[in-house]
Automatic annotation (TrEMBL), chains A, B, C, D, E, F:
GO biological process entries: rRNA 3'-end processing; rRNA catabolic process; tRNA processing
Family: Belongs to the RNase PH family.
Gene this chain is encoded by: rph
Record-listed E.C. numbers: 2.7.7.56
Protein name: Ribonuclease PH
Species per Swiss-Prot/TrEMBL record: Formivibrio citricus
Amino acid sequence: MRPSNRRPDELRPVRITRHYTCHAEGSVLVEFGNTKVICTATVEESVPPFLRGKGQGWVTAEYGMLPRSTHSRMRREAASGKQGGRTLEIQRLIGRSLRAVVDLQKLGERQIVIDCDVIQADGGTRTASITGAFVALTDAINGLIAAGKLTESPIKEAVAAISVGVFEGTPVLDLDYPEDSACETDMNVVMAESGHFIEIQGTAEGVPFSRAEMNALLDLAEKGIRELLALQQQALAG
Amino acid sequence: MRPSNRRPDELRPVRITRHYTCHAEGSVLVEFGNTKVICTATVEESVPPFLRGKGQGWVTAEYGMLPRSTHSRMRREAASGKQGGRTLEIQRLIGRSLRAVVDLQKLGERQIVIDCDVIQADGGTRTASITGAFVALTDAINGLIAAGKLTESPIKEAVAAISVGVFEGTPVLDLDYPEDSACETDMNVVMAESGHFIEIQGTAEGVPFSRAEMNALLDLAEKGIRELLALQQQALAG
Amino acid sequence: MRPSNRRPDELRPVRITRHYTCHAEGSVLVEFGNTKVICTATVEESVPPFLRGKGQGWVTAEYGMLPRSTHSRMRREAASGKQGGRTLEIQRLIGRSLRAVVDLQKLGERQIVIDCDVIQADGGTRTASITGAFVALTDAINGLIAAGKLTESPIKEAVAAISVGVFEGTPVLDLDYPEDSACETDMNVVMAESGHFIEIQGTAEGVPFSRAEMNALLDLAEKGIRELLALQQQALAG
Amino acid sequence: MRPSNRRPDELRPVRITRHYTCHAEGSVLVEFGNTKVICTATVEESVPPFLRGKGQGWVTAEYGMLPRSTHSRMRREAASGKQGGRTLEIQRLIGRSLRAVVDLQKLGERQIVIDCDVIQADGGTRTASITGAFVALTDAINGLIAAGKLTESPIKEAVAAISVGVFEGTPVLDLDYPEDSACETDMNVVMAESGHFIEIQGTAEGVPFSRAEMNALLDLAEKGIRELLALQQQALAG
Amino acid sequence: MRPSNRRPDELRPVRITRHYTCHAEGSVLVEFGNTKVICTATVEESVPPFLRGKGQGWVTAEYGMLPRSTHSRMRREAASGKQGGRTLEIQRLIGRSLRAVVDLQKLGERQIVIDCDVIQADGGTRTASITGAFVALTDAINGLIAAGKLTESPIKEAVAAISVGVFEGTPVLDLDYPEDSACETDMNVVMAESGHFIEIQGTAEGVPFSRAEMNALLDLAEKGIRELLALQQQALAG
Amino acid sequence: MRPSNRRPDELRPVRITRHYTCHAEGSVLVEFGNTKVICTATVEESVPPFLRGKGQGWVTAEYGMLPRSTHSRMRREAASGKQGGRTLEIQRLIGRSLRAVVDLQKLGERQIVIDCDVIQADGGTRTASITGAFVALTDAINGLIAAGKLTESPIKEAVAAISVGVFEGTPVLDLDYPEDSACETDMNVVMAESGHFIEIQGTAEGVPFSRAEMNALLDLAEKGIRELLALQQQALAG
């Protein structure tokens, strides 16, 4: 039995609120149950130095957590003077996941910066971030099209992400914090609309996992991501 | 005429939402018009090294802005590796303002850390932070009383803060960003329930200001803070 | 009774020594009693990136304390790897105070950097810094005029600063360290020759202060700054 | 055809040299073709603060590259003042992979620090590091047993790692740099002797990958890791 | 001919002013011509971690330059976030030079921190620092004896330092900045009262130097240091 | 008697292995007994900002130690966020030593970066670094000549370095770690093929040293460096 009484293949209630803050070109509050992340997309009419003059754009991401988004207060990274390894790992993952669905040539020499800031954490912040960030990115790109700066969308397909894991011997979908901190195996899956994978990161926290367990987890992940992709479309249609 | 069509002595719509996030001992979303700040209060059962064994507590604050809380994206301080001068200045001001209304002996050897994180900025983030932080602090202290860890409240009186300034020759209350960036003189006033001042910080952005102007600004500030103190009480009673 | 036996409205002996070191375009040793600060002004024929090509100049300041300028040794900021919040706050104040009396258009595309380094501290280092820095700035600008690089002075009026506070119930002028560390209310006032204010920063260290106390402190500050402005003129005439 | 003329399921020549440097408790040079990594294991008779007094040990890892281990010189991380995101990601992976095969209770209150330093890079540095680090860790633990500090080995089973990827449409084993920089999908697999997985990290560099491709890659990885586990045993027996 | 018209074996005018600032246990302004350094000695009743409980003391040094002590302004090290290599090199040299003449056992478990801060630079700042620091150290130690904390002086003998160099083919004593920046060979010599050397650091800036040149430079240095040792004694007797 | 049973004037076995790693323009493993350093030379077709457009080149060096190159593990400088004073001092010494034998005009507007990374330490790492770095530099420059980018070698003469010291009263050549940590006086000597000195750094670790001791040490150093220069030539001829 899951602590939240969910079925093994049941997502938490997911909400995607567009136009959440007023300044960014895309701004989304994404909620996976009690996990809440603000995802903004900023359009910058320049690219990082390594891309200058190459006729292509870039999509990058930064990730942060408010110090008291968690059960006990975490040290503020701005105060400690550096971003931790987990933060860097997550923001690199978000950036790669979004770049995989964007045609950077079509984007032109501009950069879209995604900021994912967790205001409340209950497990799955990185997968919520990717799922929400895609909607913010889409809003920002639609803004470029509306402004006549782009004639066609450089977005190739949608992308969403979910965590899955083996909790007390059972493969479950969308781990919340109590599950995440107790589970034996934890996998984050990023999948595109086509059903193909962009990232799979599986980690045995305790006992190494078998090929069969892995397959069961991937089945769950595919189901969950299908639902998330539908929710993204609903939000964008709303 | 003010860009927002407000009267010179009119606050923006102020909203104070308690229990905004779920983990912190006090958690408040404070809104002064489009300025939105999450203020959390964390209780730690230890004090900083300089106070160990002295039988008194401490209240301190940290402040941050989400990178895209502003019109154009600011660099993330965690990524740049240090907090800027403005950030440090504001978080020192918030900490001093709250300590001025708390009896640190009565608090006992524990620390309350206030985090003020701006999710949307439109001027007045530091005064909104102080005003919201007082409510979060009160909730955290009431929690300590409810838990039997304190028998009486160490809070001596309420505190709130507002900005005032001379905009196009007229003293006005609660500057929003268009006013703040154009005004000649800018003053942040922190006042306690008793009507006495805790901090007054007046700066001539352009033309130095006279004693008479200063007095007019203080009159406006007193009026505004009285209204904020009433709104805090309403929120705490709610 | 003040620890120094001064009358409530009495400044400490103030000395302003020009040409204190030999390399800088302006170099002043300013002494407020035992507080001693070296203020140098450096002329740089370039402006910071955010001003390039805008046809105006800039004045900025940096502040530091020798590790053993104080009663007990402070950690060297260069060794700890960052400037503390108090340092940043003070140097921002010095910079704003000087910019308020300089016509940056008339200065042309050049920058004047003021360095205020405290070699001995006994309270009031920031106000001594501003008072001395104005003299160093004036010498640097007069050098530009003498060299034919400027035809008229961009200095609009003189500026000086003093601290005032309520010590054992009495408003006093120019706090020394024993007063500063014991006083209830502490105010730093920066005023221009015109008698108008550039900055007022009042802080209740212990008990919040009333409007009446504030007015008494401002009266004292005006008297003290008038005397400092006269001493600056004497030094510049010397 | 692979640039190295290897068959799709062929590892590069692998060499594991024990006792490579003289001071560390375990010291291994591991070579996967032209990729060369020095892996040392250091035994420290203390644990990090978060584990003190809990009666268990810890295994952690650090990773670095010599500036000119690569085709063009990389900036020295010690000079730039921080470890990059890739470095942190890799050293976290190495640490997790080794902890997964060590019984930390049996290790007792001591820490083993693994340092993996790449002296020459040609793809696969993280998987070579894990493979070599396991041998260095085993030597260090055998030293503890020989010294009578441990009575039984806390090592539960062996671990090794390999990269696999889709290169020009074909799944291949043990990517070298020319393959790694051109491949569509890249997967790092960490597997224990039991045939169960510890980490799977698959990334679509270009085109998202299907479930079938993933399965082909995992088959290759299993084959390669079996060979590596045998080579580790040979080296430890030697 | 030397730019200063000095004879090859002539020191610049040297002045040693004790009790230069009021808080430190030893405080000296040392002047070698236009080079001016404030040297303070701080007594701390604790030792660094690596010496705790070993029954011996420590002497260490820090060095800094005011940003405008030099011809053109140098970046403030506190602002750039780290001490440069030259700074670290010099402060390590000062520390070693003083420790060489102090019996650290006799000093007891306390530390003396020497701060050398250059307020005006014209060559030879490190040798002036050592020469002045010895006087500040002696004052601090005499204070400990006067306070009954030490019964005998741990100072074994005096130490002073001077620079020598080959300038336009001629060995000269006590290089000033114009000589230092143009000379072929530069040597800093630290010598104790006994006539034995504590440090010799010779560097060929341009052309490598012969054994004969080196001997001529050491002869000059011995002569100069003899004079400095006498000036130290005069100052301490004063 | 020396711990290694060497005669006082006997070097440790010295080995110089060229082409040690495959990517760098020059790559040498230098061994002085158990001290092993990888020295690479990287050619960059640009110069640092302070030299741009001056028609001359630059040679610079960086130095590092693997964390477990030493008896007990040292903290990784990349992890601690800065290079220590000893590291900076050594890399400055290596850079100066090499620049002294290179005609920077002839090198043209390009930079050669030398990286010296200690993989095993047993005393004398800086002198081994200089000795090995010269060979790597020569290989890199010969590569430029072979590629037609230089028509004649900018190398003026060879350079090598050795440490000497007074160990238990006897001057000895090429200190290993047991000697280095126990010796009274320690001197590092950098000498060119011409027999002239480039750097002499003598330090009294315990008792100050006399002129006679210094001369004995220099005699030893000259003998040792002559042997090293011959070994460099052999290696380059090999």
